[in-house]
Amino acid sequence: MADTATIARPYARAAFDYARGANALPAWSELLAKVGAALADERVAALVGNPHVRTAELVDFLLDLAGASGNATARNFLRLVAENRRLDAVPAIAAQYEVLRA
Fold this sequence. Notes:
Blueprint: H1 4-21, H2 25-40, H3 42-45, H4 55-66, H5 72-83, H6 90-101
């Protein structure tokens, strides 16, 4: 199985490319950091993969926690990550995003 850094790399690159083009680098840093922190909480982590929680509900919940509920691009990005069962890689995505940003 691929390691988390390898999995995170294309997502981090996509987020960085979008954020740079939209002049939103700080906002995406904050978004990814907050979603990563939320997913590190065991109560939130328990929702990932729970058959009673739909992907769209989980994504909306994470966006609400991050204060980005109105951001359609962030919603699409997180939905893609969630549908590919890669939410556990969000902290690594955030870390690699920061490397690209630096």
